[in-house]
Amino acid sequence: MFKFYSQLLFSFHLSIKKFINPKSLAYNYTINGEKKVITEVIVWFGLIIALFFGALVLFGLFFTVKEWEKTAILRFGRITRISGPGLHTKVPLIENTIPIDLRTRTVDLRRQSAITKDNISIVIDAVVFMKIEDPKKLILQIGANQFQEAVAKYAQSSIRDIVGKYTLDALLENREEIASKLKVKVDSLTNKWGIDVINAEIQDINLPADMQRAFAVQAEAEREAKAVVITAEAEKKAAHNYAEASIILQKTTFGFQLRSLQTLADVSKDQSNTIIFALPTETLVKMGIEGIAAASSINSSAARKRTEKQPK
User: Fold this and answer.
1) Per-residue pLDDT for 140 more than 60?
2) Whole-number Å distance between alpha carbons of 86 and 33
3) In the predicted structure, residue 155 carries a pLDDT above the cut 80
4) The dihedral formed by the CA atoms of 157, 162, 167 and 168, expressed in degrees to the nearest 10
5) 18 confidence band (pLDDT: 50, 70, 90)
6) What are 223-239's pLDDT values in tens digits?
C-alpha cells in the first residue's frame, strides 16, 4: 500500500516536472531510481502538512463578533482592544479573544431566609436584572465567567440586611421600597465591575404557618368590625329616614292610612296564613274608621268593667 501511494505521488510529481522542465525528468528518473521516489514522497507529505497548518492559520486569522456581543482581544495576556459586531482579524497563536454577552441577565434569589426587625422569620423570593456596560472593567475586576455568581451572593446578603431593618407589617406594605433599596445597594458594588443593575423585584414573601393563621384571624376580626360599623351606619341612616317619614305622614291626612294599607297588602301575600292585625284606637281614628274605633272603645270599656267586677 505504501509503495502504491509512493508511485502515485511520484507519477504526479513527474507529470508536474515534465510540464516545467522535460530534461530534468529523464535524468532524475534514470539515475536516482528508487531513492528518488522516496525523497519525493517525503517532500510531498511535508507539503501537505504545511498546507494543512497554513489553512488553520489562515482560518484563525479572522473572527466574527455577534450583534449582542463585544470581544476583548488579548495579546500576550494584555487587553489591546475591544471589538464590536462585525468581521475582525487577529494574529494567530499570539492573540486570543474573550467574547462578552451584552444582553440582559437575571439573578434569581429563591427561598432566601431572613429575620425582620420584630424577630419574625420569613422566606423571600426576589430577582435582579443586570446588564454589562464595560467589558474591559468586567474582565479585569471580576472575570467573564464568575461575575453572575458574585452578584448573586452579594444580592443575597443585601436583601437580608434590608429586611432586617423593617417590621413584618412594614415589610408587607413597602415591597416596592424594599426592591428599590435592593437595586441601589447591589448597583453600588456592580458599577465597579462594569455591570449596571437595571431593576430589582420582590416576587413573594412567605410567612410561617402560625403567622399565617394569626394574620387570618386578624383579617377576619377586622372584617367583622367593619361590618358592624357599616350596619350601625345603615341603622343610623334608616332611623333618620324613618323620622323624616313619620313627620311627613303626620302632616298628611291619608298618608298614614295609605301606609297602613300598604303594610297589610305586603303581609297578606301569603294566603296560607291567617293574620291578626291589631291596631290601637288612635290609629283607627287617624285612618278615618270612626265606627270601628268606637266599637273597639266600647268593647274595651265593657271588658274592663267585667274584669273589675270579678271577685278577687
Assistant:
1) yes
2) 55
3) yes
4) -60
5) very low
6) 788 888 888 888 888 88
Q: Which of 188, 192, 186, 105 is nearest to 140 (CA)?
A: 192
259-281 residue pLDDT tens? 666 776 676 666 666 666 666 65
pLDDT of residue 308: 54
- For residue 47, what pLDDT is reported? 75
This prediction has a pTM of 0.56
Q: Grid cell 367593619 — which residue?
A: 226
- Inter-residue contact 163 to 119 (CB < 8 Å): no
Rounded Cα distance, 288 and 286, in Å:
5
The CATH number of the structural domain formed by 105-207 is 3.30.479.30
DSSP string over 208-276 = PHHHHHHHHHHHHHHHHHHHHHHHHHHHHHHHHHHHHHHHHHHHSSSHHHHHHHHHHHHHTS-TTS---
**What are the start-end ranges of the H helices in the chain?**
2-20, 22-31, 34-61, 135-141, 147-163, 168-173, 175-190, 209-251, 255-267, 281-287, 290-309
Residue 231 CA, distance from chain mean position? 40
Place of cell 482592544: 81
Contacts of 205 (CB under 8 A, 6+ apart): 122, 123, 124, 125, 171, 172, 175
End-to-end CA distance of the chain: 150
Hey, where are the domains in the chain? 2-61, 66-101, 105-207, 209-247, 252-309
